Amino acid sequence: MFHMSIYESQGLTLNNVTISAPDNSPNTDGVHITRSSDIRIINSQVATGDDCISIGEGSSNVNIMGVSCGPGHGISVGSLGKNKGERDVSLITVTNCTLTDTTNGVRIKTFASPVSLTAYDLTFQHIIINNVKNPIIINQRYCPQGCSRVRFFFFISESNLVFINSSGCRTLGSRAILG
């Protein structure tokens, strides 16, 4: 369930939006973007029990700027590759965002599946993390409900990933990058 779903949209700007849900509320993505282009989310606050912002398949030219996220699961590209017919994700920029008390910072999550698609030209810059368990995650075997029956793993191609001038602190015992 999403608080806000942007689907097959072009040229949309969300400015100064506030979304709030309890941190223990499952499946409550703040904003989910799918099959959309030229989307901007700026100067907004998102607190949820799931992804603050998630960018799904078929999305391109998405700019997330000045967003404050937390609590929640951070800002995610994905999940990708679960269903046949999914489209590439490209030209995603996340800049000047602050993530506080989140499970994840920025995350790319893809299913290990036979779906062929690419996530490319993803830029994360000037990200500040505060008390984040997993600051950066690239998970190519995302499987939230157990995928033990998967016999063949095909990985979604990820190219031109850029992380620039990001800083902050993670929680004790956390991992920086999972891949």
From TrEMBL:
GO process terms (BP)? carbohydrate metabolic process; cell wall organization
Alphabetized SMART domains for the sequence: PbH1
User: Predominant location of this chain?
Assistant: secreted
Q: Per its UniProt entry, which superkingdom is the organism in?
A: Eukaryota
Q: Which InterPro entries match?
A: Glyco_hydro_28, PbH1, Pectin_lyas_fold, Pectin_lyase_fold/virulence
The active site is formed by 73
The alphabetized UniProt keywords are: Cell wall, Cell wall biogenesis/degradation, Glycosidase, Hydrolase, Secreted
| GO molecular-function terms, A-Z | polygalacturonase activity
Per UniProt, subcellular location reads as: Secreted, Cell wall
> What is the similarity comment for this entry?
Belongs to the glycosyl hydrolase 28 family.
- The molecule here is called Exopolygalacturonase
Q: Which organism is it from?
A: Phtheirospermum japonicum
Q: What is the taxonomic lineage of the source species?
A: Eukaryota, Viridiplantae, Streptophyta, Embryophyta, Tracheophyta
